[in-house]
Amino acid sequence: EVQLVESGGGTVQAGGSLRLSCAVSGFTFDDYVIAWFRQTPGKEREGVSCISGNDGSTYYADSGKGRFTISSDNAKNTVYLQMNSLKPEDTAVYYCNVLGYWGKGTLVTVSS
Question: Using CA of residue 22, residue 98, residue 58, residue 105, what is the dihedral sign?
């Protein structure tokens, strides 16, 4: 059974940092792309970043370029999203996704 568990959310002031974690299980980590999405009430879920478990290649949406860094620890089957210089508009529930499976999300709140 594929499981994804996000953690690391919280409340920070604008300009602050958070590191989100996504612990995954139930599949071979190296073979797939794992992505971070986020969603705010009334809006569609949007992609933030993704990483290949195979070769470590990464992609960032414009919203996080230069501020967010995605990484993975294959030995721990965990993907991280380091978020720096956070803005109030980054406030959202952040989810990780693989193979169409979703975690329950972790809430990030950035106060101005």
Answer: negative
